[in-house]
Amino acid sequence: MDKRIMLDGTQYRITTRSEEALIELSRKQITDSILELTVNIRFPEPQEPHSFSIGWGMPAKDMYATWSTTFGYNVIPLRVEWSKQTTNSRLAYNAPVHLVFSQSGYNRVALALSDASVASKLQTGMNEERGDMMCELQLFTETPREVLQEYSVTLRVDTTDEPYYETLKRMEKWWREACGYPCAYIPEAAKRAMYSTWYSYHQRTIPEELLSECRLAKEMGMESIIVDDGWQTDDGTRGYAYCGDWRPTPAKIPDMKKFVDDVHAIGMKFILWYSVPYVGRMSENYERFKDMQLYTSGAGERSWMALDPRFPEVRRYLVDTYRNAMLDWGLDGFKLDFIDAIRARPETPKSDPRWDIPTLNEAIDTLLEEVTRELRAINPDVLIEFRQFYVGPVIRKYGNMFRVGDCPADAIMNRVNTIQLRYLLGESAVHSDMLMWHYEDSPEAAAKQIIASLFSVLQISVRLAEIPETHMRMLRNYMDFWNANRELLLDGELRAYHPEMQFSLVEAEKDDALVVVAYLRTPVTLKKAYGRVAVVNGGGEAGVLLELPEDARYAYTILDCMGEILSTGTLAEKTLVALDVPESGRVELIRV
Questions:
Q1: CA–CA separation, 509 and 490 (whole Å)
Q2: Strands annotated E in 363-413
Q3: How far is the C-alpha of 452 from the C-alpha of 159, rounded, in Å?
């Protein structure tokens, strides 16, 4: 069925495969530039709905690029109508928001969906005949779909002419206040820097070495250690064939409680990794759960299955696993991995009489609610890390640490995605991917990994006892800088300019202070006379161009990436000055 509805001068095209569906479309104008389209669908009897779409066109005036929540380089050029730019979303995958902006970084049209659980697509593409931007919402885009008789959802369309980040912040507020998607309580420890073992040790979990690393990490202001994959197996060939029993392997950790206690004695918290749905072929639990799976990955003895949370026994097993680990070992938190892997494939069973929940989305939601309820009953400040892609509005009520997806030594990916998650997740604690670099690199190049992630919670993943002395000095310098400015960097007003250049200039303001990072050699203009300013040179060459406001005079100090003072002086008001700030260094200004 394909029909068109005219509302307030705009023609909407509605397409569905169901001839029996009764579809009602209403339009509510919230402001001159914000409208809400509400779609009501009714079937004659309960059924699994077919895919549904609604589309319309608008003049493509001053449109330059799109912003999407997809992990990766999420700001990309405009696409054509027959190959639209798409944001895919479901409960545990991305978020239903999609934006087109001008070259000046101003919003032109932003789309967001009130139901962040349903599998959906938000799309934009250029119509080459008319020069219109074609916008489209698709619903029920993945199977299995929930059986329903009635369904209602609201699509918010925002064309406010303002910086794109202001539009995104308003969308996040709409989800939180109007759609019922609150943020979880954020413990203070979730916003403190952490040491991660993944890139530094991978599956080599060695308590004695890690305790030494913890002592060095604690000195630099890292307050937790995340012990990643490897603690549960002697196998070191990656994969998940040995996941599922979740007992420490004695060859690595003969006494997990003592290991945790020793970390606590250093003054750090202990977070442990689990691959939530995976049970491997080599685990004892494989036989118990092999007929309660969604699908199998890998082959032979190296294979593993993804558990199906629609089985109450599966959910109880996972909840008990984490609850008992917290009680028995004294854990402070959990790195819950691969929640986005809980999804259907063609081979996934369509039904089972043992299910107590009929749909996967509802089962995922229930699993996470049960896990977090029981863990928070033991410790209200329990730390729970989630990772891209599962970072949407629904899921943020469970996790309190949201990490960028794996991007080892990719500074641009960390920069782009930490900024994206900051706007998407509101007050939630956004973490960088684990930061690593080659030990033979220059300290200036190594510093780029940290500088790219300054506006997020830092996770460091190099062997502190083995990095060169110059790297250690660099790391201490930037850890000191980050810790001193932590509240400003994480909680200040965040403004990321030039999204079409992957955010080449980013700043955070709080009270009378400002931190700016210039990732290209571009002028930094102080819009007012702040009492304290730091400008970090995150570009690939020396030099910072700085324009001062009127009625401002500053004493300045230029430092290199290791914190060594190179020069000092004063700057007069209303001048554009080129400062000789070295690559990965910074200039600090105090108003006098």
A1: 10
A2: 383-387, 401-403
A3: 30
pLDDT at 73: 76
Q: Which amino acid is at 552?
A: A
Q: What is the pLDDT of residue 310?
A: 98
Look-up of token digits 């919230």: 30
| 521, two tokens | 């050699």
Whole-number pLDDT of residue 384:
98
Helix (H) / strand (E) containing 108: strand 107-113
Query: Residue 422 and residue 320: Cα distance in Å, rounded?
Result: 32
The CATH class for the domain spanning 192-489 reads alpha beta
In the three-class reduction of DSSP (H, G, I as helix; E, B as strand; rest coil), residue 289 is classed as helix
Reading the block at residue 3, the tokens are 């029909």
* Residue spans per domain, the chain: 2-177, 192-489, 493-591
DSSP code, position 337: E
**pTM (2 decimals)?**
0.97
Q: Under a CB-based contact definition with an 8 Å cutoff, are residues 558 and 587 in contact?
A: yes
**At how many degrees (to 10) do helices 443-451 and 469-484 cross?**
30
Per-residue exposure over 354-386, b if at least 16 CB sit within 10 Å of its own CB, e if not: ebebebbbebbbbbbebbbeebbeeeeebbbbb
CA distances from 328 to 256, 260, 376, 395 (A): 9, 10, 16, 27
Q: Packing angle between helix 312-329 and helix 360-378, nearest 10 degrees? A: 20
11 and 4 Cβ atoms separated by less than 8 Å: yes
What lies within 8 Å, CB to CB, of 145 at 6+ separation is 48, 49, 119, 359
Helix (H, G, I), strand (E, B) or coil at 157: strand
Q: What is the pLDDT of residue 72?
A: 76
Q: Are 500 and 522 in contact (CB under 8 A)?
A: no
> Where does 250-351 show beta strands of DSSP type E?
269-275, 278-280, 293-297, 304-307, 333-337
CA distance linking residue 24 with residue 588, whole number of Å? 59
Closest CA to 162 of 97, 105, 211, 95: 105
Three-state DSSP state, 211? helix
Taken as a whole, the chain contains a residue count of 592
> Could you give the CA distance from residue 491 to residue 209 in angstroms, rounded to a whole number?
34
Residues of the chain below pLDDT 70: none
* Residue 306: strand pairing partners: 278, 295
List b or e across 564-577, with b for residues whose CB sees 16 or more CB atoms inside 10 angstroms.
eeeeeeebeeeeee
